[in-house]
Backbone:
């Protein structure tokens, strides 16, 4: 009896299209999610599925959800509908164009997040602080707590800086618009939008960065409204009628009529088992070169992107010198896997390298390929001068007519890079490792380092941009906006500048090429700040935090600026100008070559044009050219770039190619506070700058700012819940207070927990660095806020044994004693370890005294180091 | 000088050029015309076509004469290209057949460690920091155990731990990365559901309750099929390439002359 039944069941199951038979569990895969009920009619869904977690979906006529799934407990279809398939337990009225695809569990959608990623205990609105913008008016509003916000009338514009805004109600009516300059959390009890919610002109953001949380009962997006946001009304009823939602919506009940909905593209991924709304610390490396980079290849590095990602997860890699079979002869391995990494090979020459190292390629025998194959410094320079030229120029004898060979080869190599990232990404709910697709844009005008790492959110990526097509950073940002964020292809991207310490004042020079007025300048500044939310403050080629003795910043000497300097000579000061040659440690040095100076320039621009182009969060990475992400241990460093520094002599001495050798270091790591270890969670965190940098150790640090934060937070077990709800996290914007008083900062740091073989070093102190601009003059101030700078800890340079007291954990609530409520300012924290041996001392100590290079006994070469972590800044924004 | 020498050599070794024939296939002429059109932007005229063919034939004559003279021998570029062509040929001659599920299962079993998922626990913890003055951390943590056992909320006890009070799905590596090496092994050994402590970390003493435990396992093939297939192919490819070269080697005897 059972056999025939099973056979029938098998036939039935076989007829279900297998590609549409599973319910996607992540909220970001959906255009519309209702907890209880949904009605859709005459609506076009361009991307994202539709779901009712537990309840009925009523589909009226005219639903065009081509390629999308409908998921609910029960679905009623009346009239024409197009979809990929319906997943529901009970379905009536399906058509051939929207067929039944299978059953659905109940609740169909298990992950309806109660607060949509915004802390549950965000303070209530303040009825007394009503904001009204009328026809023709433009008003700017810093983040904060407000009452009813009304933007109405033709041309009325409310500009938001980004960050968190709390309102009693938000009404943006026909002809009016609400524009944001940065990632936004807008919390309101109710909302009516018949106007526009979108990024400000020039700002390149996706709906992932604009979150609207409706806490109350009702929200309407209607009558011609155009909204770019992810809207969430967990307790309420949301209506989208005769409107366009370039984003998604989540609510208790949803009605969509005559609507167009286009949710951001999301990769298929289960929810990570580690998901934590209070966010975990994940460590990674976002600056990694492999054999595909022209300089790494020239120095005999043969590590592939696949091997680099495997190395990040704990596998060994073989480094040059190569044996007769072409295999590396030194083994390197990390004892703690990274959580994430991006392979970022130089986009320039991806095709050229392939053409020149592949016998039989059409231009293998070209003169320039032969020059390149000489290898080493010679080969690297043969290509390197081409990116430094003004304008940059490819080699015609390699690239062929119209550069066609180089473009074609680069596209092939780019496919391999993407494939390596895809294969390394853990798609299971363990979420053990995240890869990002990326590359390095190698701007090098007149031998100054103007490099940027380009990191993509997902697997929808355009071809890499090079300096040959876009010689300027502005060109890069515009191309990334045009071909990625604004292209409507599900792509999202950010660019991370680095080694401004070699830029001769150019990296953070504020300029607006071709701008014909303040509006153009604001647009360019907005593009810059949205495209470059982060900065790599530390890596192999030293720190770019600060530099003592340069003009243009008032404030005492900060002795911690002497950490891992790039220039140990006495370079000339660029002043307000620029120089050349920084990549090879020539030319002048500018206050703008360091992030502190850049942040101050940003404040000046904020005051001048109302937009801050340099709102930079902090990361660090290695910039390894060995394909060894995360190889930061000072006691085991085998070098940075193949045969360039593959022996103790080349590393410990003066260096070969350019002034380096003992001046260089293994580089650092990026820390990210994210809900889970996945591309969307990490990328969102990078956009909101909830990141920190370390010089290598796995120090963790949190920074929050707010008005009225309890001084006892450091002994409150619920510190995190309170700080997230009442304050802003690192990277965020702090608006003014109506109650008076100075802002408080809670900073909490844990030392590197260590491993069995490397126990980790204790902390010495925590500092807060404040920067502000007063009467056009830039100021800095360093405050010691926790720990003890005179704790007496030390390290023996010969044995590397550490002595003296230190702290495992430091936490304090600090209030700015010099606060001026009408003054823009930024604050970031710096966590300093007790002294430990620098890699150079380990390297020298390992050699017999007679074998040591001269630098081993040079008193100018640092032998100890105080490793550290830097948080992203928090910016204070007064009333406009 | 070299030219004269070569010419002399040619005269000495080459028979009179009688009966040599070069056939120019029509497909080749079409290809030359296409290339020219891409370079110049217009289809070549009849005259240009004739010129293209003449140039190709001139190259071909020199090429064949060079082969007759043995000029390909001892040329490292020619050698390298032929080696590479041979590699392509060998790879193509032994395509990798699609594996059966059984083969993949065997591969997965043989390399289980590569795909294995570790034990994972979810924990709640209450933290006593070494940095808090007063009573020692271990004593404070011990003091809370009774209250925790009676159901007191862990959210009301202890010092804040800035990496979280509740941590889901933690492997030994995850716990080590957050708490240091001493902590992880002790926590993984705890029973589910009961508060235990103090357990020492790099930062202080903790009371810990394991809330969930997922034993590690080697995942079924279906869940790791892509990775297994990728690794299986890479291993097969390497083995086949090695085999092909080994087979060729058997056809040759090699004698390395001793140094004079």
Residues:
């Amino acid at each position: 009896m059972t056999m025939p039944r099973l056979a029938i069941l098998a036939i039935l199951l076989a007829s279900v299209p297998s590609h549409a038979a599973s319910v996607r569990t992540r909220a970001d895969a959906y255009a519309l999610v209702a907890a209880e009920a949904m009605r859709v009619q005459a609506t076009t869904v361009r991307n994202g599925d539709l779901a009712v977690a537990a309840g009925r979906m009523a589909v009226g006529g005219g639903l065009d959800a081509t390629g999308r799934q409908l998921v609910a407990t029960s679905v009623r279809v009346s009239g024409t509908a197009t979809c990929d398939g319906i997943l529901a337990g009970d379905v009536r009225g399906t058509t051939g164009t929207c067929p039944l695809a299978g059953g659905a569990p109940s609740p169909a959608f298990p992950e309806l997040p109660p607060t949509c990623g915004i802390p549950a205990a965000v303070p209530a609105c303040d009825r007394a602080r009503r904001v009204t913008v009328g026809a023709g008016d433009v008003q700017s509003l810093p983040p904060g707590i407000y009452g009813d916000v009304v933007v109405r009338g033709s041309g009325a514009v409310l500009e938001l800086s980004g960050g968190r805004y709390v309102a009693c109600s938000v009404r943006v009516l026909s002809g009016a618009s609400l524009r944001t300059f940065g990632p936004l959390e807008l919390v309101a009890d109710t909302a009516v939008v018949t106007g526009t919610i979108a990024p400000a002109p020039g700002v390149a953001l996706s709906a992932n960065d604009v979150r609207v949380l409706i806490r109350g009962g009702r929200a309407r997006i209607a009558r011609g409204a155009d909204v770019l946001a992810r809207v969430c009304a967990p307790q309420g009823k949301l209506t989208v009628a005769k409107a366009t939602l370039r984003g998604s919506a989540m609510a208790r009940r949803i009605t969509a009529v005559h609507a167009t909905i286009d949710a951001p593209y999301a990769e298929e991924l289960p929810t990570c088992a580690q998901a934590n709304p209070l966010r975990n610390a994940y460590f990674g490396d976002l600056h990694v070169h492999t054999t595909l980079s022209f300089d790494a290849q020239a120095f005999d590095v043969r590590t592939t992107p696949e091997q680099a990602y495997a190395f990040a997860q704990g596998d060994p890699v073989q480094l040059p010198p190569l044996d007769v079979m072409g295999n590396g002869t030194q083994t390197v391995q990390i004892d703690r896997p990274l959580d994430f990494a991006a392979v970022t090979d130089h986009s320039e020459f991806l095709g050229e390298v392939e053409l020149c190292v592949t016998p039989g390629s059409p231009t293998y025998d070209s003169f320039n390929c032969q020059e390149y194959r000489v290898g080493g410094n010679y080969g690297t320079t043969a290509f390197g001068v081409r990116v430094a030229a003004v304008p940059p120029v490819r080699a015609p004898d390699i690239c062929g007519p119209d550069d066609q060979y180089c473009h074609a080869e680069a596209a092939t190599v780019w496919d391999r890079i993407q494939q390596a990232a895809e294969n390394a990404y853990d798609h299971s709910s363990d979420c053990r490792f995240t890869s990002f697709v990326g590359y390095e844009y190698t701007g090098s005008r007149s031998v100054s380092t103007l490099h940027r790492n380009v990191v993509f959110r997902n697997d929808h990526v355009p071809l890499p941009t090079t300096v040959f097509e876009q010689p300027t950073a502005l060109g890069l940002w515009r191309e990334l906006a045009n071909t990625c964020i604004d292209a409507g292809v599900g792509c999202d991207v950010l660019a991370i500048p680095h080694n401004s310490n070699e830029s001769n004042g150019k990296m953070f020079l504020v300029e607006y090429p071709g701008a014909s007025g303040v509006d153009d300048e604001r647009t360019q500044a907005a593009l810059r700040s949205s495209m470059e939310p982060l900065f790599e403050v530390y890596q192999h080629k030293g720190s770019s935090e600060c530099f003592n003795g340069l003009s243009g910043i008032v404030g005492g000497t900060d002795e911690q600026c002497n950490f891992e300097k790039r220039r140990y000579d006495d370079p000339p000061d660029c002043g307000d100008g620029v120089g050349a040659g920084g990549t090879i440690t020539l030319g002048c040095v500018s206050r703008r070559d360091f992030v502190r100076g850049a942040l101050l320039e940003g404040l000046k621009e904020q005051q001048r044009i109302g937009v801050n182009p340099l709102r930079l969060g902090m990361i660090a990475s290695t910039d390894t050219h060995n394909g060894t992400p995360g190889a930061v241990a000072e006691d085991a460093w085998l070098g940075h770039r193949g045969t360039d520094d593959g022996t103790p002599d080349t590393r410990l001495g003066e260096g070969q190619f350019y002034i380096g050798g003992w001046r260089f270091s293994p580089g650092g790591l990026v820390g990210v506070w994210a809900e889970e270890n996945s591309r969307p969670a990490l990328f969102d965190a990078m956009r909101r700058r909830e990141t920190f940098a370390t010089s290598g150790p796995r120090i963790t640090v949190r920074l929050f700012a707010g008005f009225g934060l309890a001084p006892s937070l450091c002994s409150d077990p619920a510190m995190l819940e309170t700080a997230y709800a009442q304050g802003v996290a690192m990277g965020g914007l702090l608006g003014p207070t109506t109650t008076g008083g100075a802002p408080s900062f809670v900073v909490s740091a844990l030392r590197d927990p260590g491993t069995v073989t490397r126990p980790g070093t204790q902390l010495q102190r925590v500092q807060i660095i404040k920067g502000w601009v007063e009467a056009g003059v830039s100021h800095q101030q360093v405050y010691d806020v926790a720990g003890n700078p005179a704790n007496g800890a030390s390290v023996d340079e010969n044995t590397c044994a550490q002595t003296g007291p230190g702290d495992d954990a430091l936490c304090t609530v600090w209030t700015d004693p010099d606060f001026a409520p009408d003054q823009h300012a930024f604050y970031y924290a710096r966590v300093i370890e007790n002294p430990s041996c620098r890699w150079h001392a380990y390297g020298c100590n390992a050699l017999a005294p007679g074998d040591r290079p001269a630098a081993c006994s040079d008193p100018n070469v640092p032998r100890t180091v105080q490793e550290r972590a830097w948080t992203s800044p928090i910016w204070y924004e007064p009333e406009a | 000088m070299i030219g004269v020498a070569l010419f002399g050599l040619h005269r000495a070794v080459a028979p009179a050029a009688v009966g040599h024939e070069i056939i120019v296939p029509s497909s080749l002429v079409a290809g030359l015309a296409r290339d020219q059109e891409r370079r110049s932007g217009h289809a070549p005229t009849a005259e240009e076509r004739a010129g293209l063919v003449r140039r190709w034939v001139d190259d071909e004559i020199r090429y064949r004469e060079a082969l007759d003279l043995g000029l390909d021998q001892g040329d490292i570029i020619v050698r390298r290209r032929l080696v590479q062509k041979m590699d392509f040929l060998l790879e193509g001659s032994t395509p990798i057949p699609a594996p059966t599920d059984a083969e993949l299962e065997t591969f997965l079993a043989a390399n289980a460690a590569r795909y294995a998922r570790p034990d994972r626990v979810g924990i709640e913890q209450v933290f006593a920091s070494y940095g808090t003055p007063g009573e020692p951390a271990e004593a404070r943590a011990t003091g809370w155990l009774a209250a925790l056992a009676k159901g007191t909320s862990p959210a009301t006890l202890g010092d804040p731990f800035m990496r979280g009070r509740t941590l889901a799905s933690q492997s030994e590596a995850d716990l080590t990365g957050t708490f240091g090496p001493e902590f992880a092994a002790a926590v993984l050994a705890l029973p589910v559901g009961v508060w235990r402590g103090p357990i020492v970390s790099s930062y202080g003493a903790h009371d810990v309750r394991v809330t969930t435990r997922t034993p590690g396992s080697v995942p079924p093939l279906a869940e790791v099929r892509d990775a297994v297939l990728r690794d299986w192919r890479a291993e097969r490819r390497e083995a086949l390439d090695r085999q092909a070269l080994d087979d060729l080697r058997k056809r040759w005897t090699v004698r390395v002359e001793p140094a004079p």
Summary: Chain B has ten helices and four strands. Chain B touches chain A through 48 residues (CB under 8 Å). Confidence is low (pLDDT under 50) at residues 1-17 of chain B. The CA atoms of residues 27 and 167 of chain B lie 69 Å apart.
